[in-house]
Amino acid sequence: MANEEADILQMHDLHPAPGAKKDRIRVGRGEGSKGKTSGRGAKGTKKRYQVRPGFEGGQLPLYMRLPKLRGFKSPFKQVYQVVNIATLNELFPEGGEVTVADLVKKRAVRAGNPVKILGDGDTKLAFTIKGVKASASAKAKIEAAGGSISEN
C-alpha cells in the first residue's frame, strides 16, 4: 500500500527542468555585477544608452521627411458632381423627365455621389429634373423654359 502512494505525482514534487529557469541579465548596473562594461559590450550608442524610437542612425528621419500637416479636411464634406444646362441639352435633345439614373446611364455622372445642375448654357426645352440640387441661375433658366426641378 505504501508503494502505490509513492508513485502518485504530488504538487510539491513538481519543479522545472534543469537549465529551464535562468535569471534575466541586468545590464548597466555597475561594474560589480557584470565586469568592466556592465554587460553592454564595447563602444557604441547602445553601450551608452538605448537609441530613441524613430532614430535612423543619423539619416533624416521619416517624421522630418514628410510635409507638415496644414489645414483640416472634413470627413463629412459633400462633393457634388456638376452638370451644366448645355450638357443637358446635348444629352436629352427632346427634353422631358431627367433623373440621376438617366444621367448615370448617359455617363454624365457616376452613381453614388450627389448631383448639382449649374446654369452654364441656355435651354428652350422643358426639363423635369428629379433628385438633384440646382444653382439659382440654373433653376431660373429651367423654370423659364417651362420645366421644373425637385430635390427628392
TrEMBL record:
<comment type="function">
    <text>Binds to the 23S rRNA.</text>
</comment>
<comment type="similarity">
    <text>Belongs to the universal ribosomal protein uL15 family.</text>
</comment>
<dbReference type="GO" id="GO:0022625">
    <property type="term" value="C:cytosolic large ribosomal subunit"/>
</dbReference>
<keyword id="KW-0699">rRNA-binding</keyword>
<protein>
    <recommendedName>
        <fullName>Large ribosomal subunit protein uL15</fullName>
    </recommendedName>
</protein>
<keyword id="KW-0689">Ribosomal protein</keyword>
<dbReference type="InterPro" id="IPR030878">
    <property type="entry name" value="Ribosomal_uL15"/>
</dbReference>
<dbReference type="InterPro" id="IPR021131">
    <property type="entry name" value="Ribosomal_uL15/eL18"/>
</dbReference>
<feature type="compositionally biased region" description="Basic and acidic residues">
    <location>
        <begin position="10"/>
        <end position="34"/>
    </location>
</feature>
<dbReference type="GO" id="GO:0006412">
    <property type="term" value="P:translation"/>
</dbReference>
<comment type="subunit">
    <text>Part of the 50S ribosomal subunit.</text>
</comment>
<feature type="domain" description="Large ribosomal subunit protein uL15/eL18">
    <location>
        <begin position="82"/>
        <end position="149"/>
    </location>
</feature>
<dbReference type="GO" id="GO:0003735">
    <property type="term" value="F:structural constituent of ribosome"/>
</dbReference>
<keyword id="KW-0694">RNA-binding</keyword>
<feature type="region of interest" description="Disordered">
    <location>
        <begin position="1"/>
        <end position="53"/>
    </location>
</feature>
<dbReference type="InterPro" id="IPR005749">
    <property type="entry name" value="Ribosomal_uL15_bac-type"/>
</dbReference>
<keyword id="KW-0687">Ribonucleoprotein</keyword>
<dbReference type="InterPro" id="IPR036227">
    <property type="entry name" value="Ribosomal_uL15/eL18_sf"/>
</dbReference>
<dbReference type="Pfam" id="PF00828">
    <property type="entry name" value="Ribosomal_L27A"/>
</dbReference>
<dbReference type="GO" id="GO:0019843">
    <property type="term" value="F:rRNA binding"/>
</dbReference>
